[in-house]
UniProtKB/TrEMBL annotation:
Domain ABC transmembrane type-1: 305-528
Function of the protein: Part of the ABC transporter complex MalEFGK involved in maltose/maltodextrin import. Probably responsible for the translocation of the substrate across the membrane.
Domain of life, source organism: Bacteria
Complexes and interactors: The complex is composed of two ATP-binding proteins (MalK), two transmembrane proteins (MalG and MalF) and a solute-binding protein (MalE).
Protein family according to the UniProt entry: Belongs to the binding-protein-dependent transport system permease family. MalFG subfamily.
Entry keyword set: Cell inner membrane, Cell membrane, Membrane, Sugar transport, Transmembrane, Transmembrane helix, Transport
Main location: membrane
Stretches of the chain forming a coiled coil according to its record: none
NCBIfam families: PRK10999.1
Protein name: Maltose/maltodextrin transport system permease protein
Pfam families (alphabetical): BPD_transp_1, MalF_P2
C-alpha cells in the first residue's frame, strides 16, 4: 500500500481547500445581513399576526423578546449572548405564567365569565329569530371567475333577485350586497345564468356565503335584509336585543334595558335580572377576601390548609424516621446480606409512583382488598378506608411514607459514610451503647446536612397532587359546602377541583389559591437556601 495515498485528501475536501480563507470570510459577511433581514421580517410577521388576532399585549411581549434577541446578538457583548437564552426561557416559562396566574386571581374569570365584554355584547346582539314569511331559497351560479347568488320566489325555482358578480372570499366583517331584481336592465340576462352549482360547491363556499347580508331593493324594515340560514336558504331575522347609544341593550320583546355591570360582569337591568353569558372583569381582592371572610368557604379552606401542612409534616417525619433507622441498621457491618436487604428496601423508590399508588388502591379496597382480608381474618374487622375521613387520611400517610422512605434511606446511607469511625471507637471506650451513639453522634452529624433536603421533601409533599388524585380523589367530601371540597384534598388538588372539576370552573379563585401556594413554597425555598448556606459554613 502506498502510504501517501491513504493520507491524500478527498476530491471534495481538495475542492473546498482551494478556496482562500479570505473568500470564505467575504462570503459569510455578504450573507450575514440578508439572513438577518429575513429573520427580522419573519419575526415582524409573527408579531403582526399576533396583533391582528387581537392579542395586543402578547404582540408587545413578542416584539420585546425578538427586539432584545436581535440587539444582543448583533450589538451586545459575548457574555449576554450566552445568558440570553436562559434569561428568555425563565421569562417565558416561569415569570410569565406566574404573573398571568396572579393576574387572573384578581378577576372573576370562570366558566360563566369566559368572554370579554365586547364579545358578550356581540353575542347578545346576534341573538335573533327568523321571520318565516320572508325566507327565500337560493342557488349559486358561476360567472367567470366570480359567482352570482340567485334568490328564488317562495315555492318556485323562478329567479326573483340576482346579486352582482361576487368573489366569495372569507372576510372578517359581514359583506352587504344589494340585490338586483331579475327584470333589472343592469342584469346581463342576454348571456343566461349558468347551471346552479351542486351542493358540494355550496359547502366549499359556505363560510363566504355566511358573511353575506343581502339587501332587497323593494322591501323595507327587517324584511329588507336577508341573512344566511343554511345551505339552501336566506331570510330576514328579528334581533332580540338592540344596542343603545349609552352602551346598554334594549330587549325588543318587553322594552327592558340591560346596562353593563362592571362589578358583577353581567348585563343587568334595574330589577336585578342578568343576561348570560357574563364577561371577565377585575374584582380586586375579592377572591382573597373569600378565603378570609366568607364563612361557608373559609371552613373547608382552613381545614384543607391545616391538613395539607399536617400531611406534609407527618410524611416527612415518618419517612425520615423509617429511612434513618434502616440506614443505620444497614450500616452495621456485622449484618449479613446487607446488599440484598438494601436492594429490597430500595424497590419502592425504583417502581414508578403511580403504579405503586394504584396497587395500594386495590390493596385497601374495602370488600376485595388483601389488607382488609387479613384484618378480617385476624380481628374480624373491615375498615372503610375510602369512606371514613380519618382512615382515608391514615391510608394516604401510609402510602406516602412507603413511597418516600427509600429516598431518605439513601441520603442517610451516604451521610453515614462521612462520619469518622474514630468517634464511635472513642464512644466504645467510654462504654456508650448504640442509642447513645445514635443520639450523640449519628443524629447531630446527619441532621444538619439533611435539613435542606427535608425542607425540599416537605415542599414536594405540599403539592403532591398525583397521590391524592389517584388514591382518594379528595374524597370523602365535606357536607353542605358552597364549593365541593374533599376531606383528603390538599391545597393543590382542591385548587384543581375548583378550576377544572365540579365547582363551575372558577379560574379566578383557583388562581388566587395557586398564588398563595406559590408564596408558601417560595418561603420554604428561601428557608432551604438559608439552611444550605449555614450547613456550608
Amino acid at each position: 500500500m502506498n502510504p501517501t495515498s491513504a493520507a491524500s485528501p478527498s476530491p471534495l475536501a481538495a475542492a473546498y481547500g482551494t478556496l482562500p480563507p479570505s473568500l470564505w470570510s467575504r462570503l459569510a459577511q455578504a450573507l450575514r445581513w440578508p439572513v438577518v433581514a429575513a429573520l427580522m421580517l419573519g419575526a415582524l410577521y409573527l408579531v403582526f399576526s399576533i396583533y391582528a388576532a387581537g392579542q395586543t399585549a402578547w404582540a408587545a411581549g413578542a416584539l420585546a423578546l425578538f427586539g432584545g434577541a436581535f440587539y444582543i446578538y448583533l450589538r451586545a457583548g459575548f457574555a449576554w449572548r450566552y445568558l440570553f437564552p436562559g434569561v428568555a426561557g425563565m421569562a417565558v416559562f416561569i415569570a410569565f405564567p406566574l404573573v398571568y396566574t396572579a393576574q387572573i386571581g384578581f378577576t372573576n374569570y370562570s366558566s360563566a365569565h369566559l368572554l370579554s365584554q365586547a364579545r358578550v355584547r356581540a353575542y347578545l346582539l346576534d341573538q335573533h329569530e327568523v321571520i318565516e314569511s320572508g325566507v327565500m331559497g337560493f342557488s349559486l351560479h358561476a360567472d367567470g371567475p366570480e359567482f352570482r347568488v340567485v334568490l328564488n320566489a317562495p315555492g318556485t325555482a323562478q329567479p326573483r333577485y340576482v346579486s352582482p358578480p361576487l368573489a366569495l372570499r372569507k372576510t372578517r366583517e359581514p359583506l352587504k350586497v344589494t340585490m338586483l331584481a331579475a327584470q333589472d336592465e343592469h342584469l346581463p340576462l342576454q348571456s343566461p345564468l349558468q347551471a346552479a352549482l351542486p351542493l358540494r360547491d355550496l359547502v366549499e363556499h359556505r363560510e363566504a356565503l355566511a358573511q353575506l347580508q343581502l339587501l332587497l331593493p323593494d322591501r323595507s324594515g327587517p324584511e329588507a335584509q336577508l341573512r344566511y340560514l343554511g345551505l339552501r336558504e336566506y331570510g330576514p331575522v328579528a334581533p332580540h336585543y338592540l344596542e343603545q347609544p349609552d352602551g346598554s341593550l334594549l330587549r325588543v320583546a318587553d322594552g327592558q334595558r340591560f346596562a353593563p355591570d362592571g362589578k358583577l360582569g353581567y348585563y343587568r337591568n334595574e330589577a336585578g335580572e342578568i343576561l348570560q353569558p357574563g364577561y371577565k372583569v377585575m374584582v380586586g381582592l375579592q377572591n382573597y377576601s373569600r378565603m378570609l371572610f366568607d364563612a361557608e368557604f373559609r371552613g373547608p379552606f382552613v381545614s384543607i390548609f391545616v391538613w395539607t401542612v399536617l400531611f406534609s409534616l407527618a410524611t416527612v417525619a415518618g419517612a425520615t424516621f423509617i429511612g434513618m433507622f434502616l440506614a443505620v441498621l444497614l450500616n452495621w457491618e456485622d449484618l449479613k446480606g446487607r446488599t440484598a436487604y438494601r436492594t429490597l428496601l430500595f424497590l419502592p423508590y425504583a417502581v414508578p409512583g403511580f403504579i405503586s399508588i394504584l396497587v395500594f388502591k386495590g390493596l385497601f379496597n374495602q370488600n376485595f382488598g388483601e389488607i382488609n382480608a387479613i384484618l378480617d381474618a385476624l380481628f374480624g374487622v373491615k375498615p372503610a378506608w375510602f369512606a371514613d375521613p380519618l382512615l382515608a387520611k391514615l391510608m394516604l400517610l401510609i402510602v406516602n411514607i412507603w413511597l418516600g422512605y427509600p429516598y431518605i434511606m439513601i441520603l442517610c446511607s451516604g451521610l453515614l459514610k462521612a462520619i469518622p469511625s474514630d468517634l464511635y471507637e472513642a464512644s466504645a471506650i467510654v462504654g456508650a451503647g448504640p442509642w447513645t451513639n445514635f443520639w450523640r453522634i449519628t443524629a447531630p452529624l446527619i441532621i444538619k446536612p439533611l435539613s435542606p433536603l427535608l425542607i425540599s421533601a416537605f415542599a414536594f409533599n405540599f403539592n403532591n397532587f398525583v397521590l391524592i388524585a389517584l388514591l382518594t380523589d379528595g374524597r370523602p367530601d365535606f357536607l353542605s359546602t358552597k364549593l365541593p371540597a374533599g376531606q383528603t384534598d390538599i391545597l393543590v388538588s382542591y385548587t384543581y377541583r375548583i378550576a377544572f372539576r365540579d365547582s363551575g370552573s372558577d379560574f379566578g379563585l383557583a388562581a388566587a389559591i395557586s398564588t398563595l401556594i406559590f408564596f408558601l413554597v417560595a418561603a420554604m425555598s428561601l428557608l432551604n437556601l438559608r439552611l444550605m448556606r449555614k450547613s456550608q459554613q
